[in-house]
Amino acid sequence: MRLILLGPPGCGKGTQAQRLVGKHGIVQLSTGEMLRAAVKADTPVGRKAKDIITRGDLVPDDVVVAIISERLDQPDARRGFILDGFPRTLGQAEALDRILAAKGLRLDGAIELKVDEQALVERLESRIAEMAARGEPLRADDNPETMKTRLANYRAQTAPLIDYYRKKGLLKSVDGMAPVPEVTKAIDRALGPEIAARSG
Ligand code: ADP
């Protein structure tokens, strides 16, 4: 099963991706996580991405497309994957189409998590408070100011992908405001048994 998760920052993409991974035996490919790992390891990509991520802006398409293209060639992605945070621009979506076509693969669905913006700000505030309480380091971009930039970038660059996938007949919209397990159930219902059974 090959899926995309779409939705604004803080909508719960990462949480749902992890649950789908456990349920369906596919891998979660999060460009945000990959970029944060590159920053931590101080690789050339990490050095390029660090300030951009901290500002809440988008890393250039060619950088993330190269990361994803390479990652999709790893053996563990053969059984299926869930893309979390990619594609984020029309250019990335078109590049993904080309990459998959070249590998003879196709997407099974693009899941949109619908949430209201006020909830996103509240979720971010509670995520910051919980991480601070656990003594975990905060993400450099998890603060209310950067969140505004991330949301603005989402609206301008990523939200148009909802129509892109709707036109391809791949879009499945789910209410992301429901409790976490309910959202997972709604995703499973939206995919239907036929897609959920697909492997490889
Ligand atoms: P969130 O969805 O909560 O904003 P992510 O972990 O997905 O968090 O992304 C964090 C940051 O990493 C983004 O704000 C952006 O700077 C960068 N990033 C992640 N994925 C992409 C992508 N596909 N294209 C460009 N930049 C990306």
What does this structure look like?
Helix 2 packs across helix 3 and helix 4 runs parallel beside helix 5. Strands 2-3-1-4-5 form a five-stranded parallel β-sheet, with helices on both faces. It starts with a strand and ends with a helix. The model has no long low-confidence stretch (mean pLDDT 93). With 200 residues, the protein is α/β, with parallel strands linked by helices. The longest helix is centred in the middle third of the chain and has 17 residues, at 117-133. It is built from nine helices and five strands, in the order E-H-E-H-H-H-E-H-E-H-H-H-E-H. Residues 9-10, 31-32, 35, 52-53, 56-59, 64, 85-86, 88, 92, 141, 150 line the site of adenosine-5'-diphosphate. Adenosine-5'-diphosphate binds next to helix 2 and helix 3.
Essential attributes:
200 residues, alpha/beta, five-stranded parallel sheet, globular, binds adenosine-5'-diphosphate
Write the layout of secondary structure elements.
Elements: E1 2-6, H1 13-24, E2 27-30, H2 31-40, H3 44-55, H4 61-72, E3 81-84, H5 90-103, E4 109-114, H6 117-133, H7 144-158, H8 160-167, E5 171-175, H9 180-196
Parallel strand pairs: 1-3, 1-4, 2-3, 4-5
Helix pairs in contact: 1-9, 2-3, 4-5
The site of adenosine-5'-diphosphate (ADP) has 18 residues, from helix 2 and helix 3.
